[in-house]
Amino acid sequence: MGAFVPATMAASWLDIGDPLDDLDFMVILVGGFWLAGRVVWSRNRLVDRLADQSEELRRSRESEAQARAAEQRARIGRDVHDVVAHSVTLMVVQAEAGEAQLEPDHPSAECLRTIQRVGRSTLVELRGVLGGLGEEATPSLPERTGGPGLRDADRLATDLTEAGLDLVLRVDAGAADLPPEVDLAAYRILQEALTNALRHSPRAHVDARVQITPDGVVVDVTDDGAGVQATSRPSSGRGLAGMRERALARGGDITTGPVGTGFTVRAHLPLQARTEAVR
């Protein structure tokens, strides 16, 4: 702009002799350029301010949503702690009191010890769940590193066998090297499949196998039905849906259905999560 005005005045002087004769034109021309620049600058500042306000509003909404979610998680954690943890703790204490009144070799003593063991294990797992919810007021429990996994499969099999399930379980070596998320998902699917077998066909013989493959884990649970028609079992429910959700969350797949008079559950969980449809 500084070079343009003198150049324009020089050209005017060469053309008409006196550049001052066009001074009003020069003022209007320069003022017009200045005004246009000012308008563009003001508009850009307004756009920047609106963008900053929009970003601030977005961050504020996200913060409010996170605060509401945290509050809801804390409320759920408190409810679980106050209701479930209290009830399970009471069950364990009552089982301990009942066992203390029996002879060590009494037929009911082992049942009470099983109740205590399962109750304490449930409270330990509950601590992990409440910790994930951000709940600090968890029950006073013995410390344990990590959540449940396939390393607990033998104990799970013992509990179910004592509950009356005719079970043969095999777990391949190498389960301890699985990623924690895969380990937990495989254990929960195995746990739910075996529990379903006990619930729907308590007299069945169950063969369960956990295979560790180069690319993942295969959980295979099949029962012979023990005379119970598998087609009479519910084809859908919270248990089956939960297993499907766990498999899908890890990018795996699962098939369930009747086999003769029995029922089978077969799940594959890859080591690396991928997105696939659940069959």
Task: Write a brief structural summary.
This protein is an alpha+beta fold and 279 residues long. It contains six helices and five strands; from the N terminus they run ααααβαββαββ.
- The pLDDT mean sits at 78
Percent helix range: 55-70%
- Enumerate the strands of the largest sheet in spatial order, edge to edge or round the barrel: 1-2-3-5-4
Indicate the radius of gyration in whole angstroms.
36 Å
Oligomer description: single chain
What is the chain-wise order of helices and strands? HHHHEHEEHEE
Beta-strand content = 5-15%
Q: Kindly report how far apart the N and C termini lie.
A: 71 Å
The geometry reads as elongated
Please report the total strand number as a whole number: 5
InterPro entries: HATPase_C_sf (IPR036890), HATPase_dom (IPR003594), His_kinase_dom (IPR005467), Sensor_HK_TwoCompSys (IPR050482), Sig_transdc_His_kin_sub3_dim/P (IPR011712)
Protein name: histidine kinase
EC number: 2.7.13.3
Pfam families: HATPase_c (PF02518), HisKA_3 (PF07730)
What does this protein structure show overall?
GO terms for molecular function: ATP binding; phosphorelay sensor kinase activity; protein dimerization activity. The chain folds into two domains: 147 residues; 132 residues, Heat Shock Protein 90 (2-Layer Sandwich), CATH 3.30.565. With 279 residues, it is an alpha+beta fold. It is built from six helices and five strands; from the N terminus they run ααααβαββαββ. The two termini are 71 Å apart. The protein has a five-stranded mixed β-sheet with strand order 1-2-3-5-4, with helices on one face.
